[in-house]
């Protein structure tokens, strides 16, 4: 059983890469990191495509979408992400 089974029905592509990261964490950590980053990139791209408040930054790489403004927006609008 995967920790990411809940993604399988609604986000099958995200589920696949997350499951690959999970399965490789001990046997192939570099491979696991690749799939973990791929999952994160897909999730962030989905957020930008589906949240009209978020505006796609000028650079299309992972560093720009994870800017402090993005963190502030997520933490103030979604209580699930706050500590």
Structure description:
This protein has three helices and no strands. Helices cover about 55% and strands about 0% of the residues. The mean pLDDT is about 80. The protein has about 80 residues and is an all-alpha fold. The radius of gyration is 14 Å and the shape is globular. It has one domain.
> Beta fraction of the residues?
under 5%
Count of distinct strands: 0
Structural class call reads: mainly alpha
Outline the low-pLDDT stretches: none
Mean pLDDT: 81
Distance between the termini: 27 Å
Oligomeric organization of the protein chains: single chain
Number of domains: 1
Write a short abstract of this structure.
With 83 residues, the protein is mainly α. The chain has helices spanning 12-24, 29-50, 68-77.
Please tag this protein with its features.
single chain; 83 residues; mainly alpha; 3 helices
List the helices and strands and how they pair.
Layout: H1 12-24, H2 29-50, H3 68-77
Helix pairs in contact: 1-2
């Amino acid at each position: 059983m995967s920790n990411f089974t809940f993604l399988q029905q609604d986000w099958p592509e995200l589920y696949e890469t997350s499951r690959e990261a999970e399965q490789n964490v001990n046997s192939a950590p570099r491979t696991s990191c690749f799939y973990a980053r791929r999952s994160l990139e897909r999730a962030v791209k989905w957020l930008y495509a589906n949240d009209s408040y978020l505006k796609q930054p000028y650079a299309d790489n992972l560093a720009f979408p994870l800017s402090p403004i993005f963190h502030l927006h997520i933490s103030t609008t979604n209580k699930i992400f706050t500590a």
